[in-house]
Structure formats: C-alpha cells, structure tokens
C-alpha cells in the first residue's frame, strides 16, 4: 500500500511538472519575440520566426516586436521582422506606430525600411501627432526632410506652413513657420491682422512685444511663439 501511495505521489508530481512546462512553452512566444527584438538578438529572433512565431504578436504591454526593435534602434531586427510579415502600421496600445517611434528617435535607417514596407506617413498619435510633427518637434531635420520627400502631408503647422497668432479677440499676426523646437515655433511675420492701435504685448505669443501700431511687431520680423498661441493653422498663402 505504501509503495502504491509513493507511486501516486510521483505520478502527480510528474503531471504537475508537465503542466508547468507546457504552460511556459505556451507563453514563451508572447514574450520571447518582443524580448529578442528589444535586445537586438538577431539569431534568437530569426530562430523564433522560423519556428512560426507571429511577428505581430503583442506583448503584455500591448507593444509589437517591431515597435520594440524600432524603439531600441535595432535596424537589423526591424528588417527581419518586416521580411517575416510584421505590419508596419500596427500601433502600440497607446496608438503609436513604428514610424512615429522612429521619427521621435531620429532613426533614419529604420524609417527608410518602414516607408519601403508601406508605413502610413500620416497616421497620428494623440500627443505625438504625425511622424512629421514628431520629427519636427524633436528637432530631427533630416528625418523631417525624408518624410516630406516621401510624401508626408503637412499638418498645417509644419515648417513652411502659414499660421496665425490671433488671441487678441481675433486680431494679431500671421507668419510662416521657420523652425520648430518642441513647443516653440519660430515664425517670420507676414502680416498684421487688425491691431491698428497696437495689441498688448504677450510674453508667450509675441515675445513680450506689442503687435502693430507704432513700434510694435511688424511684417518681416522673426519671433518665437508657443504652440498654444497658434490660433489658426494651415492658413492659405
């Protein structure tokens, strides 16, 4: 009887071990592929893909292996994932595309790979905006140029666009965007709208200068204004 009880205990222990191993194996692809992509472990990545791992499998945080590879700057891993069928437009749980991630990081080589693979140039993420907006805001001019030449549309507040700063009861000025530094917009004033007797100076919207009137801001002046001051964007030239 004692031998029989021992045998039962051994069988139960063995069954539990099989269940635990099976569960681990079943969960491995969910974390192994994003981990390999994040670490740039190309050999492991290719092995998993060749074994049938889904290149679009999200991890527990909602990120795809491709997003992980792009965020870490591993171009070879991104190339391998795209070749295996990774969706270049699959967003993270927060709505970020791989191209937006590349634009934020200024990762030119990866951006070219994504664009060649059919990445949408104009999908926007709340907060980050489109890839072009993200690149401009982060000061990645080469990235911004690549996106524009690839066909990215302007947002109406990108470099070269005309915008207006009119928080003075509809009056103010309009100008062309010369440069963007995160939330600061460098503008060349093209015209004054109203403000015949001068509009009061605003620290963030007119660099502390009055607008119009005698001695006020005028066409041709270059000024820096906060993004929150742009009351009209995409204005017709």
Read across the widest sheet, the strand sequence of neighbours is 1-2-3-4
Topology, number of strands: 4
Q: Number of DSSP helices?
A: 8
Radius of gyration over C-alpha positions, nearest whole angstrom: 27 Å
- When the domains are counted, the total is 2
CATH evolutionary superfamily of the largest domain:
Ankyrin repeat-containing domain
- Summarize the biggest pleated sheet: 4 strands, antiparallel
The H-and-E topology, N to C, reads as HHHHHHHHEEEE
Structural class: alpha+beta
Instruction: Report the helical percentage.
Output: 40-55%
Secondary-structure arrangement, i.e. CATH architecture of the largest domain: Alpha Horseshoe
CATH class of the largest domain: Mainly Alpha
CATH topology of the largest domain: Serine Threonine Protein Phosphatase 5, Tetratricopeptide repeat
- Sequence stretches where pLDDT stays below 50 over 5 or more residues: 13-29
Mean pLDDT: 88
For the terminal residues, how far apart are their CA atoms? 95 Å
